[in-house]
User: Fold these one by one.
Assistant:
Number 1:
Amino acid sequence: MTATTAGQTEAVQDAGYLSYRTLIWRRFRKNRMGIAAAVILGMFYLVAIFAGYFSPYDHNDIRIQVRYLPPQEVQFDWSGGFYVYGLTSTQNPVTLELEYETDRTQRFPVRFLSRDGSGDFRLVHSEGPMYLLGTDRMGRDLLSRIFHGARVSLTVGIIGVFLSLILGSVLGTLSGYFGGWIDHALQRVVEILASFPPIPLWMALGAALPAGWTSVETYLGITIILSIISWGGLAREVRGKVLVFREQDYTTAARSAGAGHWHIISRHLLPGCYSHIIVVATLAIPGMILGETALSFLGLGIRPPMTSWGVLLEEAQRVTVLLNHPWLLFPAAPVLGVVISFNFLGDALRDAADPYS
C-alpha cells in the first residue's frame, strides 16, 4: 500500500466511515473500569471452569478432625521453600468444639503443579493443613468449595439470562410490531409479574419444586424460575424500541415491497435492538446470581451435595456461627465482586453502544 493510499484510508476513517462495531469497540476500550471488570469476570469464569485444578483439595472431602478450622497461613524460608505447620487439637469441655494449636515440629511442603494423594492434578496442594480460608462444620476446605460453587452461581446467571433474553426479545418484538390485543395481553402479563415482590415470589416458586428432585433437576428448575420472572422488563424495553422502528421509512418500504412479517422483524426491527439487548443482558446477570444466592441461602434453591455460593452462605445464618467462625462469610466476597464487575461492565457497554453521543 502506497503512502497516498494509506493516507486516504486514514482520512476516510477519521471522516466517520468506521463500522458500528468498530466504533463500539473503540469507545469501550477507552473505559478502564469496563476493561478491568471484563478481566475480573474472565478470571472468575476461568476459575469456575477449571475449579478442580485450582482447588487445593476435593471440595466434598470430609475431615471431621479439622472441622471449623480457622484460616491457616503458608510459611516460607529459603531452605525449605513454602510449607505449612502441623496442628494439634483438643476438645473444649464447655463448648465441645475443637481448639487448635500450631505444631511447629511438623512441616508439610506445599507443592505446585503436581498430583495429590488421590491422583488429581492440582495447581497447589499440601498433605498438611493448608486451609487458606478455613473449613466448615464438616471439615471441608472452604476455598475449594467457593471455587466449585462458582460453577453453579455463575452459570445460572448466563443460562437464566439467555432464556429470559429469548422470551423478552421475541415477546417484546411481537407486542410492539403487531399491537392490538396481542400487545394488550402481553403487557398485562408483564404488569402482573412486576407487581409481585421478587423475594416472596422466588420463595413461593422455589418451595413448589418437588423435594425428591436431584441437584441437577433443582438447578434447572431454579434457572427456569428466574428466567420466567425476569423477562418482563426486557420485553417492555424492546417493545418501546420496536414501536419506533416500525414507523421508520425503511420498515415502511419493506412492507410496501411485500416483505413478510418475519422478514421485517428479523431484518429491520430486531437488529436495531441488539446493542440494547446486550447491555440489558449484562446488567441482568447479577440479578440472576443474587436470585439464586437468595434462594439457596433460604434453603429453597440448590441442594447438597451440589454447592453454590448461596449454599455456602446458608451455613452462616446463625449468629453464634458468625461470632465463633466468621470466616464462613468469605463466600459473600466473590458474590460482591461478580455483581460489582457486571455492573461496571454493563455501564461501559451502555456508554459504548451509543458511540455517537
Note: Residues 72-130 form one domain.
Number 2:
Amino acid sequence: MRARTRLITGLTVLISGLLVATAAYGERSGPCAACEKLAGFVRPGEIDDEIRKMVGKYTGKHKGGGGRENVAIQKARGVIETQLYPDFIGGADCPQIDSEKWAIDYSHKRRRAALHKGIDIPQPRGTPIRAVADGTVVGRFMNEGNRKGIEVMLRHTPAQTGLPYWSYSQYTHLREMSPLPMGGLVKMGMEIGKTSNTGKMGRRVRRDALHFAILYSAHPEWSNDGAVVTPKDGYFMDPNAFYRLQPPYDSQALSRLPAGQKNIPVPYLKTDGSLVPPDTRRIWPYACK
C-alpha cells in the first residue's frame, strides 16, 4: 500500500510538473492573448509558414537545412544588398550604421546559413532608442537563449508613416524590457528602450548597439505567436529605404537605382526635441545633434 501511495504521489508530482512546464511554454510560445483586440491581428495559423521562416524561425529537420531554406526565402523577400546609404538632412551629427550595413551574409558566424536582416547602430549603453514613427506595440519578447535579446516591435499604418504599406519596426538588444505595454499607442520620438547588447553571444562580446529592422506588407493583417511578429505576405525592407519619400521600396528595384539615387535623405529628431524637417512622419531611431 505504501509503495502504491508513493507511486501515485510520484506520478502526481510528475504530471503537475509537466502541466506547469506546458503552461509556461504556452505563455512564451503560444498565441499572444493581449493581441486579440488589436487592429489587424489574426491567429498564427492564418499566416503562411513561409513568413515565419522569413523572420528567422528555424523549421528544418536537419542541421543547416532550415537555414538554407530560410535564407532563400529571405532573399526572395527583400534581404539583398541595395547599396543605400543614410544622408542625414543638413549634415546632422547622427549615430551611424556600422561597417556591416544591410543584408550581410552571417553564415560564417552561425551554425547554419544566415543573413543579417537589419542594420546595427552602435551607441553607448543606456542611450535612449526612439520610435521611428507613430505606431502600436505589437511585440515584446525577452528572447531567452536567442541572439536578438530583448526586443520590441511596433506596427505603423500607412496614415502614420505616409508609406503605401503597413510597416513594422523592430528594435533588439535592449537593456531591459520596455515599459510600453502590448497594444500601447506610441508617438514618434518616444523612448522605446535603452541601448545594450542583450542576447546570446558567440565567441566574442558583442558591442552595445541597436539592431534595427523594417518589415512591410500591402495587407493590414499580422500575427504574434509569442515568439515572432509575422505580417501577412510580409517582406523585409532595407531600413534606409524606410525614409524614401517615393517608390520603389522593394530591394530588387532599389538595387537597380543609379548611384546618384543611393544616398537617402534621412529625417530625424534633434536632441532639443525639434524635428528635421518639421513635418516628417519618420525619423532615425536615435536623436541627432
Note: Residues 31-43+84-98+118-276 form a domain with the Glucose Permease (Domain IIA) fold (CATH 2.70.70.10).
Number 3:
Amino acid sequence: MDDKGLRSDKMRNQPMGRLLWGMSLPPMLSMLSHALYNIVDSIFVSHYNMKALEAIAIAFPLQMLIIAFATGIGTGSNALVAKKLGEKKKKEASLSAQTGLLITLISAALFIIIGVFTTKPFISSFTNDPETISLGVQYLSIVLIFSPFAFVEIHNSKIFQATGNMKVPMITQTLGAVINVIFDPLLIFGIGFFPELGIRGAAIATVGGQFCSMLAGILFFRFTKQDVKPFFGKGFRFNKEIVWGIMKVGLPTTILKGVGSFTVTILNTILRTYINAIMVMGIYIRLQSFVFMPVFGLTQGALPIMSYNYGAKNKKRYYKALKLSLIAAAAIMAIGTLVFQFFPQALLSLFNAEGEVMALGVQAFRLLSISFIFAAVGIMLTIIFQSLTNGLAALCLSLMRQIALLIPLAFLLSHFIGLNGIWLSYSIAEFISIAVFVPIALAFIRKKFDLKNSGHEEI
C-alpha cells in the first residue's frame, strides 16, 4: 500500500537536528504544562493548610501509579504505531492505536475501584493524624475515581506523537494545565462566587483540567486529518499479536514507572521516622518534575523517531537521534542541578516553607540534585530499549536502580549517616545502574538491527 505523503514520513527524510527539535519542543512544553498539575495544587494548598500539603505528599504515589499505567500503555501503543508507519502498514497502525485504547479503558476502570475502596487505608498507613487522613482521603478519592480522563488524554497524546504530530498534544495538555491553574485558587480559597472547597477544590481543578485535555484530543482526532484512526469502528477486531506487541513494551514501561510509585511509598515509610521529611520529599518530587519533565518531553520526541528508523532499518539515523537526544538531556539536567544547588531557599519558599522545613529542604535539594546528570543517561537507556520494541531491559534497569539498589542503600545509609544517607542513595544507585547498562544497551542496538536486517525480527 502506497502511503506517500504521510505526516510521519518526515522521520525518514528530515535533517535530524531540525527533526528532533521540531518533534521534541512541543512535548517538552506539554510536559512542563503537565508538571503544573503536580506543583500548582501543592503551592496553593500549602498556603491554605500545611497538613493538606502533607496529605498530598502521602497521596502522590497513587497519582504516580495512574501516570505509570496510562503512560505505559500509551508508550506501547506509540512504539508499535510508529513502527508500523515506518513499515508502511497504515491499517495495522490504526488497529494498534484502537487496541491500545481498549487496554487503556480497562486499566482506568481498575483505578475507579481503587479510588472507592482503598484511599483511607492507604493514607492511614503513613500518618495517625485524623485531619491529615481526612484531607488525604478527600483529595485522593476524587483523583482516582475520575482518573479515566487522564488515561484517555495520555493515550491520545501518545498516538499523536507516534505519527510525528507533536503540536496537538502540546495544545491539549497546555489547555488542561491552564484550566487547572485558573480553578485551583478559585476552588481552594472560594474566590468570588466559587465555594471554598479546600483540598477538594485542588482535586476538582486537577481532574477538570484532565477532562478538558481529553476532550480536546478527541475533537482533534474527529475533525482533523491524521495518519491513524484511534477510535473503534467497523474494522476493529481483537488481535492477540497486537495486544502482545503493545504489552511487550507497555507492561514493562508500566512496571518501570510504577516502580517509582512503589519506591516513594517505601521511602515515605523510612522517612516517617524523621519529622517533616515526607513533606520535604513531596515538595522535592514536584519541583524536580520541572527538570525531569522537559527530558521526558525530549524522549517523547526521540522515541517515535528512533522507533520509525528502526522499522525503516536506518541504523545511521537511529544513532544520530540517540546521540543528539543524550546531549540535550544532559544539558537540561545540568541546568537543573545548578538551580537546585544554588537556589534551594527560593524554591522552597514557593511552598511556604520556613524554619525546620526550610533547613531540611535545603540540605535535601543539594544532595538529591547530584543524581540529575546520571539520571539523564538512565532515561535515555530506557528509550533505547523501548524504541526497539523490547521493554525487558528497561524494566531490569529500573528494578536495579530503584529496588535492588536505591531502597537497600536508603535503608542502610539512613542507619549509618542518617537522613542525608537517604538523599545520597539516589546518586549512588543511578551511577551504578548506568555503569552496568550502557554496554548492554550498545550491544542490544547492534543485535536488534542485525535481526531486523536478516528478517528474523518479531512483531
Note: The longest helix spans residues 50-86.
